[in-house]
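We now fix the convention by which a protein and its fold are recorded. Here is one such record, which you should read through line by line:

>
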Amino acid sequence: MRFLALVLLFLAPGSALAEQPPNILFILADDLGYGDVGCYNPESKAPTPNLDRLAREGLLFTDAHSPSTVCTPTRYSIMTGRMAFRLNYRGVFTGAGGPCLIEKERLTLPGMLREQGYTTALFGKWHIGMTFFDKEGQAINKNGLDAVKRVDYTRAVPDAPIHRGFDHFFGTVCCPTTDWLYAYMDGDRIPVPPTKQVDKSTLPTHEWSFDCRPGLIAPGFDPEEVDIVFLEKSLQFLDNHAKKIPKKPFFLFHSLQAVHLPSFPGHEFQGKTDAGPHGDFIFEFDYVVGKLLKKLDELGLSENTLVIVSSDNGPEVGTVLNMREKHDHDGARPWRGMKRDNWEGGHRVPMVARWPGRIKPGTKTGQTTCLTDLMATCAAITGARLPNDAAEDSFNILPVLLGEARNPVRDFTLHQTMSLALAIRKGEWKYLDHKGSGGNNYARNKNLKVLVLPEKAPNAPGQLYNLAKDPGEKNNLYHQHPEIVKELKAKLEEFKTSGRSAPIAPPSDNTE
């Protein structure tokens, strides 16, 4: 009965869904700021013609958010539709750390789509943890140089992406050019293990070349070409898919290093902009987007492919400061805060979607959304039914994509930092359940002291801002609106206690 219902749904006249479910291409930048992209910031000094074209051909979100203000929790939340603070895990992985934060039994975005008949692939960085073993078969699950040296690379990893819903994976365990393990993983093994320690004297030296840990590097691993390697894998996947199983839909998650520090643009992109190495790196990211779009065109896949491009959090502190000073480019513009901060600059991110024939070209939406929403949205697109123990913080934004939403899809949106500082948003109101940024220490960091704003409510235990009137989060209204503080704090506690912020799905009328 359920199968028949799904068939009828796909064939129903006027249905928003195609007779053949759409392919889904999700492209995720690393640390790309709202102000780094031309269609968001006309004063951006880094050209982004392909992203700008995508915005002209699709839908631009002005109020989209990453689930967290740093990499690891955001990626967990994208893959599960669940806010990562519920794990009580602080920080990020930086090497052979693990285990994978996604439990084996938990339904994931790719796992759900695979159940709906999709081929699923991830090329690029993972960064949600993996379990490596030493020669005695003991799990290591630690970061640092010593941990990477202990790994027995002949042993398979039991919690790699191919064990969490992906059919194909080629990429890196953590940040490709930052963390202790500089090597590529294919499936659940590293075929070319690292053999020597990184010689930082051989790497580029400039204002954006820091944040490169002296870990172990594999032969042939070029830190300046990782994104081109990832791109080649995704292009090859698309070619093979179109040739061998063209009638089967695919979910391709292309997860870049760009534009995470160190800013190591590929050789082909060095000096291509007037905005230094980091500007070149942004330009390379845009190039990757363009190549993937071109490949869809060449293979005749564009018309039935939903493309979504976004970023895992706001721009890095050192990047923002140096780009402001040297190139008059502000990756956080127009928001307060940066990566790690619970202010808007830490989690309000660019997000553009294109779906020919479904999404009206050249449109914008002010609907508040979060990248956790990908899972419920893909479920709606494909006819999947989410169980109530999955996607607990995921909302269906399909009506927004189709231009059919008349009311806010989200009444509330949660925000978190790597220290598990929490905030909650309702319409124009945003309540931060903590003092300060919740991330970067503006008082102690000498480079950030110049950015400290006068505190108008120094004794307040939290912060309340009206983003419609005060988008720069300069005027803390905690004491002026105690009733709103009380409401939002109570709602935050409710969502913490209940384990979910998304509504519970109604019982199904179908019988198995």
About this structure: The chain has two domains: 21-407, 416-498.
